[in-house]
Amino acid sequence: MEVSHRISHITGGGSDGWDVFYKARRMIAQGVGVTELTIGEHDIRTSPAILAAMHNAAMGGHTGYAAVPGTPTLRETVARRITARTGVPTTAANILITPGGQAALFAAHLATCNAGDTAVYIDPYYATYPGTIRGAGAVPKAIVTTPDTAFQPRADTLMQMTKGAASLLVNTPNNPTGIVYATETLDAIARACITNDLWLISDEVYETQVWEGNHFSPRSLPGMAERTLVVGSMSKSHAMTGSRVGWVCGPENVINQMINLATHTTYGVPGFIQDAAEFALKQGDNVEIEVAAPFRRRRDLTLQALSRQNIVRAVPAQGAMYVMLDLRATGLSGEAFANALLDAEHIAVMPGESFGAAAAGHVRVAMTIADDQYVDALNRLIRFASGLAAQ
Fold it and tell me: What protein family does this chain belong to (predicted)?
């Protein structure tokens, strides 16, 4: 007996992109001290006030089956937040609460793609994107961007590559690059979706982490609300990564169908976790600003450290909790550099190739440790790269 092709080929038959991460974790398990700059896990934990709200909700009895679409009050709270931030009228009927952003991405592709349909995404990409598409039964197709355009997709390429596709997945602020899509890019995305009649899946989980410019949801562009599914999450905005609570925002008729999907898959999110998420959102913007502040600060520290040399260069770090570093001057691939850095300096970063072909020769650094430790690790990385470039 064998498992299904859909499951066995989620990674496309190759690496899932996490080899350096797994290697670092094996070293740690063996007692080796490793500085981890790999995954997007906050170095602070969920606020005690949010945990208290979760505890009180659980002790108050909200531990049974919760409403599958999400509690009415959380759906309403998310809808009001989206209306206020985007100007697009949004109600609870436009919201499905999901077990985190990853489940929302999977559900969105199941909702928009039939088996065998082409689902387009932008390279570089978050490592789970192609596998999510394959798991939904669709065929992943990458639009490869380039460093010389700061990894922003070109309008002509978007129009050409989305012909015949069922969906287009975009992510801004972007993981792994830290790029915030320009207005011209978002306009081009909208034109391609409307002209080629496809769904847009907009991953906006980093919307609260913008260091330059402003976050702009493509759902708010003319003609896009009826063809856009927005993925949101409490993980990054409120440091609730382990609580697994997110949402999909979309047209009411699509959300109704996705509720049927949730009934047959996740069967909802625990009520006490939803109550905690509702409490967190009702605390206002200051909480989100506080959670984002360390990454804004470390982004500035990164630019200061890089300004003193010219071997390691940063992709414009406009948002998110990462910085993408261009290491092509060392002559190594991102994967070779990351492995060499781990072996020599015991610093773990993610190779650019983990996120697609476009980021070859780069590494992604998660700004997720204390400032002094982060600056020390960054300076060691720069010295290591400079030594390689001098050979």
Answer: Belongs to the class-I pyridoxal-phosphate-dependent aminotransferase family.
